[in-house]
Amino acid sequence: MRVSSPTERRLAALGPRLRRQLERLYGSTGLAIWPRLEAILRERAAERPAAMAALDEARLADPDWFVAPDMLGYSTYVDRFAGTVEGLIGHVDHLESLGVRYLHLLALLKAREGDSDGGFAVADYLSVEPRLGTMADVERLAARLREGRISLCVDLALNHTADDHAWAQAARDGDPHYRAFYHVLGDDEAQAYEADLLQVFPTTAPGNFTHVPAMGGQVWTTFYPFQWDLNWANPEVMLAIVDTMLRLANHGFEAFRLDSIAFLWKQLGTDCRNRPQAHYIVRALRAALDIVAPATLLKAEAIVPTALVPPYFGADEGSDWDGGFEPECHLVYNNSLMVAGWVGLAEQSAALPHAIVAASGGLPRGANWLSYARCHDDIGWGAVIGDLAGIDPDPVARLTIAAKFLDGADGSWARGEPFQSDGSVLHGSNGTMASLAGLEAARTDEEREHAFRRIALLNALSIASGGLATLYMGDEAGLLNDHSYRDDPDRAHEGRWLHRPVMDWDALDRVAALRISGDIRALRTARIASGGAGAPATIATSTSALLGIACGSDRVFLNFSPHAVQVGDLAGWHDRVADTPIGDDAMIGPWSVLWAGPSA
Ligand code: GLC
């Protein structure tokens, strides 16, 4: 008889939740893999390092640990930030000086040779990209970060592997076990699916299938032709990914960014996004982590219409079994809020930001939004079409005007570039935060001041709305668009490199960086004082240019217009940033933030 270890107790308690997902996904075949899955869980649990097991216990006792006012995230490519993992260890002090508590490293795992979609074509999930270092380096980094209470997050690209991953190579070599890890279709079948599918990269990688002669058919490739979609209808894929994820957790990763999770399940006659089975897969991964590595967070990257995003936190499945709520991800990107912030700036109106903040309430316990103003991807305009439909009869036309403005239309202060659009189609925009907010185009002190304010405004939206506000590397220093990718044959076709500059460490002492990072620190300090974190709520304001957000004990006002506006009666309130009392007819300047806390 087994000694009742914490894992065995959790297995007994949560195993049924995991088995339920297998049954839903695979029927009785699903239950046939249970003994093998259980063996994987026990093996990985036995290998869990003592420091991680201690973290498991601490976090089980404090499950809301990451929904805290002082949480701040940072996302970066290792090479562009610090060259190597070893080099990054030398820059943890920069993260600490900003107050970072969560670090998402992009493109860390071994990627495909040549073009790898910025590292999202993974050739080996269990090795670090050799240019960057080794898994031993990562373990040292994770330990150093833990000393500073910073949790390390890595991407788990689970929709696809690279075409040179060992599984894909075995499939190409004719191994039937691994061939069944992928979707290989005949021409007619592929065409039948294609009729209902959308396209992620319509100009650089049109279509969703790639003819691969060695595979004898059309391989499903939602993204680039070298990213082969995994066949999650095959329970062997579930076993392989659960095993991979738990091994990574044992290396010291405390969070997984589940990349492109909307796409996991394919069903003819649908757009193959956000299928119920995609949710069951995530719930299975969550249950496996909750059993073996409960300190670990799951973060959903689902860039989909606003209404389809909250289900990635999990769902209440009724009362036919204990508990009712089946959790998925602890964190979910609030992509719509990010898009809305930029639309708000372009339109000089808080209408859309207001709508999205209002739609972002009601989080389950032990969950939070990941909020952000920019990341390594484009700003994809389509996500908010549904939200604008309630505000404007022609949301696409309205978004197209906003996108063109940010792409630098005549008279615009923004310096973005269209992504995957030919000018007529609405898709995405690229650009660093500073270039999009006007710093690149600014020629006078006043224009620079306005750009700084717009940057602070969007950082305030991210911080005051209670999410795990995550900065993208270089934005704290005001780095501008980087056009050098155009000279690199592996990157020239991919406009998102525009906003993935190399960190300029010398820039940190310059005026722009001091101002922008000073504003970020002040906003974070204000949020800590407010005690606010978690689901946001709006406050009514007198003008459509002004967004009001309740953050803990505080009221935060964001002026999206280029004019000063009246906030209303705030007598008895205190400006937390300026540290001055606020009067009864407070004004707020162009593109400015007023963070009001109750007077002591
Ligand atoms: C996610 C990543 C993006 C990548 C895509 C395919 O959306 O953020 O950079 O291109 O997945 O892996």
Automatic annotation (TrEMBL):
SMART domains hit by this protein: Aamy
Ranges for domain Glycosyl hydrolase family 13 catalytic: 75-515
Example GO biological process: carbohydrate metabolic process
Xref: PANTHER family: ALPHA AMYLASE CATALYTIC REGION, ALPHA-AMYLASE FAMILY MEMBER
Organism name: Sphingomonas aerolata
Gene3D superfamilies per the UniProt record, alphabetical: 1.10.1740.10, Glycosidases (3.20.20.80), Oligo-1,6-glucosidase, Domain 2 (3.90.400.10)
Protein name: Maltopentaose-forming alpha-amylase
